[in-house]
Design goal:
It is a single chain. This protein has 1 helix and 24 strands. With 326 residues, it is mostly beta strands.
Length: 326
């Protein structure tokens, strides 16, 4: 039985759940962000709006929570292509308020997606842009979200000398490797929905500490599918599997991929597509794993939410489905 836990403002365009803080942030077409929290611990299923602040005059396209070890903060992408970071702080003995900490905007491209990861050096932010470029920023001071430095910039292509005309990207999706170990270097998967086949296919990028550069280590696409536009990617938490699991959504449905942990002599990871999930009527625009990495949620243009699981034989099926009400 479905139960409503919060009522969003009319004109809500996006939302993001904070698993650690049990909070929900939502953005609106008017450029406002509302933060919901559980004020009564006994009523953990009920959320109340505790704050609201103006981010932009343009609509909010996406909200992403910053890793909790760096404070209560969100990144907001607006339809004007800008990215802004907001943090909940106390200033001059006043009550908690959301303050702008940093903003990123380019005259030549728009921000399509942003995600945060944690490396041996601290927090990293990867930004995917409408010109097909990927920008990686390092947080120089873990106590100050205003202090970011551009660490790398590259295209989502395997061959670094690939040349192509001007790219036009409608959307992009980034998902960091959620594994956090002291010996684990940064890695993320990225795919584009663009007019350039070389950019589209989902690729895993890993940071080469010895040479201080990002290298592609896997491509999650069959030979006949490498030009397919990617709508969403999601890297599953690993609770002890001898391989990683990544979901990729294209117009053909959702592909479930197994990725090996040990690179070959050329530095590439083994990949295998183990399932193709279909059932949505239309495109799948968002996918997300639960914290155990065992259940995948998907939604798209048909307004349906589906929950997918694999049985003990590795066969995937939709465990539940329900229609989103307008």
């Amino acid at each position: 039985m479905e139960k409503s836990v919060a009522t969003l403002d009319r004109g809500a365009t996006c939302s993001s759940w904070n698993y650690c803080g049990q909070r929900l942030a939502s953005g609106t077409v008017d450029g406002d962000v509302a933060v919901f929290d559980t004020r009564d611990p006994a009523a953990s299923s009920s959320l109340t709006c505790i704050s609201k602040f103006k981010v932009n005059e343009a609509a909010i396209l996406k909200i992403v929570w910053v890793p909790p070890e760096y404070g209560d903060a969100v990144a907001c992408i607006s339809t004007d292509g800008s990215l802004s970071l907001w943090e909940e702080v106390v200033e001059d003995a006043q009550s908690l308020q959301w303050k702008l900490r940093n903003s990123f905007k380019s005259n030549s491209s728009q921000v399509l997606d942003v995600q945060f990861g944690v490396s041996t050096l601290g927090s990293r932010m990867v930004v995917a842009c409408s010109d097909g470029r990927v920008k990686v920023y390092d947080l120089l001071d873990p106590l100050d979200l205003r202090n970011w430095q551009l660490q790398a910039e590259f295209h989502n292509v395997i061959d670094s000398v690939s040349t192509f005309g001007k790219a036009s990207c409608l959307s992009a999706s980034v998902s960091w490797n959620p594994k956090r170990g002291e010996s684990q270097e940064s890695s993320f998967v990225l795919g584009f929905n663009s007019n350039k086949p070389q950019l589209n296919s989902s690729k895993i990028w890993e940071f080469d500490l010895a040479h201080q550069r990002w290298l592609p280590v896997a491509e999650l696409a069959l030979p006949e599918d490498k030009g397919d536009q990617v709508y969403a990617v999601a890297w599953a938490p690993n609770i002890g599997r001898p391989y990683e699991v990544i979901a990729v959504a294209t117009h053909k449905g959702i592909g479930i991929w197994h990725v090996g942990l040990a690179p070959d002599l050329n530095g590439w990871l083994s990949v295998e597509k183990v399932a193709s999930l279909s059932g949505h009527e239309g495109e799948v625009w968002q996918i997300e794993w639960d914290t155990s990495g065992m259940t995948l949620a998907s939604t798209g243009t048909d307004g349906m939410v589906k929950l997918w699981q694999s049985n003990l034989n590795g066969v995937w099926h939709d465990q539940a489905a329900f229609k989103l009400t307008p």
